[in-house]
Design goal:
Length: about 280
């Protein structure tokens, strides 16, 4: 199990990815995102997850520059948006993201949503960028088992990561088992269900037992399931608290209790219906 923010999991191509990072979904570009990323880096985070759709890549890039931490010590992720899917348009979107971030390579590039019929073309562009060494690892977001099977059937390189909505109300057991079997690292977005789980009585009881917050219990549950997690916050104290999950371990019984909260309910869109035609 990871024991600090610097600890990594090794992806199937040998690249080391931190177990925990900062997500910046819905964080405003400019001062807000710059300060939140700098606060995270200052407090030991090395992984930052953004996306072209978040419209804050420039702020993230600015924060990286101002942080004073050498680029190669950080792990930076961004994503191609639905409207940019397709071979040529993905290559262009990549250049745009890289320019906005002010970087000359990415650590991880992800397809944001599967959609219906363009992700194979998009993936070919990803494979090209990977072969050129412009991205250290490539992956997908919100892909279900059927999307992954379809992609892998014709892909030259298997996705290294699948970032999905994952929390105690959406435990994605079948997907987690499939990804483990295929050597694809599962990563949780919205691990706290956008704050909707923070007052759950079962989680409150467990948190009290370990003298931790509900958020810390959920993030620890992610890690013990072997899932990378990227909680989002703009408050420095919360960013610090979210990372304070390496000094305790949930018992097997408590892990099961949390697993038992599954309702297959989502805070975000369902991958099969999210703008299917794009």
């Amino acid at each position: 199990m990871p024991t600090s923010l610097k600890d990594t999991v090794t992806l199937h191509n040998g690249v080391k990815m931190p177990w925990m990072g900062l997500g910046v979904f819905k964080v405003t570009d400019g001062e807000e995102v710059i300060e939140s990323v700098k606060a995270a880096i200052r407090n030991g985070y090395i992984s930052i997850d953004t996306a072209s759709f978040y419209k804050n890549e420039e702020g993230v890039g600015q924060a990286i520059k101002e942080s004073g931490v050498p680029r190669e010590e950080l792990f930076i992720t961004t994503k191609v948006w639905n409207a940019d899917q397709g071979y040529e348009s993905t290559l262009q979107a990549f250049e745009t993201s890289l320019n906005k971030l002010g970087l000359d390579y990415l650590d991880l590039y992800l397809i944001h949503w599967p959609g219906k019929d363009k992700y194979k073309e998009t993936w070919k562009a990803f494979e090209e960028l990977y072969k050129q060494g412009r991205v250290r690892a490539i992956g997908v977001c919100n892909f279900q088992v059927h999307h992954l099977e379809d992609l892998i059937a014709t892909a030259e390189i298997k996705p290294m990561v699948n970032q999905v909505e994952f929390h105690p109300h959406l435990t994605q057991k079948e997907l987690l088992a499939y990804c483990k079997a295929e050597g694809i690292q599962l990563e949780a977005w919205s691990p706290l269900k956008q704050g909707k789980l923070l007052n759950h009585p079962v989680l409150e009881d467990i948190a009290q037992k370990y003298n931790k917050s509900v958020a810390q219990v959920i993030l620890r549950w992610d890690l013990q399931h072997g899932v990378v997690t990227i909680p989002k916050s703009v408050k420095e104290q919360r960013i610090i608290d979210n990372a304070n999950v390496f000094d305790f371990e949930l018992s097997a019984e408590d892990m099961e209790k949390i697993d038992g909260l599954n309702e297959d309910s989502r805070a975000g869109s369902h991958p099969d219906t999210m703008s299917v035609g794009f």
